[in-house]
Amino acid sequence: MTPRITLRILCAALLLALSLPALAADGASGSPTKSSDPQGWSGSGQLGLAATTGNTRSQNLNAGLDLKFTGDNWIYHFDASALRSRGVISVSLPGPGGTPVDVNQYRVTANRYTFGGSAALVLDADNRLVSTMRYDHDNFSSYRYQAAVAVSWGHVLLKSAATDLDFEIGPGIKRYRVEGDLANHSAGIVRGALNYQQKLTDNTRIENHLLVEAASFDTFAENTTNLVVQMNKRLALKVGFQIRHNTKLNNTLLLNSTGGTSKTDTLLTTNLVYNF
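RESULT FIELD:
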């Protein structure tokens, strides 16, 4: 995809996103379609920490923030997450006479942060027009960063007291930099998302969020499954399992802990959640 075509697609997406408030105003002047979700602000923050000292030394921290505002015609959403780990790893360094020597060093082993946002215009009870953005920075990935914007059609497949299921699909643009490369690149993508929530008991639910960004150079997929146990109105415990996969490795020199290349990363977390 040439830079000129990429620029045209990006401009079209931005113009469409900028025109959404006008569409909402037109709808409000007539007979607005209201969201069925509770209106106003809602959100949650979560934190997980594990640290060891003594014979072993490690630190693991993950945190997340989720904010949502629901109005008559619009639903705004913002989320952010961070992951950082340090631990003792064995590093091969040149020794006397050039002979490699294995040395234990305390180093950063994971450093990733992401944030994203969306604005959804509610068309009717089941359909909405959604503009999204996502930024992902990972020091231990084949990409130094990935940034994507997209305009999607969203549709509610199922909504009841116990079950929520919806999807989004649409075109977008991704900006990225391959690890070890100084140049930034752009490409068109097709973005898809599937969100599922099932209430198991009065205080327990399971959530699953699938995100796919498909492009000619690579397809990125992320699936997050959470089991949430609500302890009271404000506090909850969450166990999460996340899988991130790239169909191609754009940097064959990227090494994981076993010395090979890996297209798939997994993350298991246990966090304390505060709802507000």
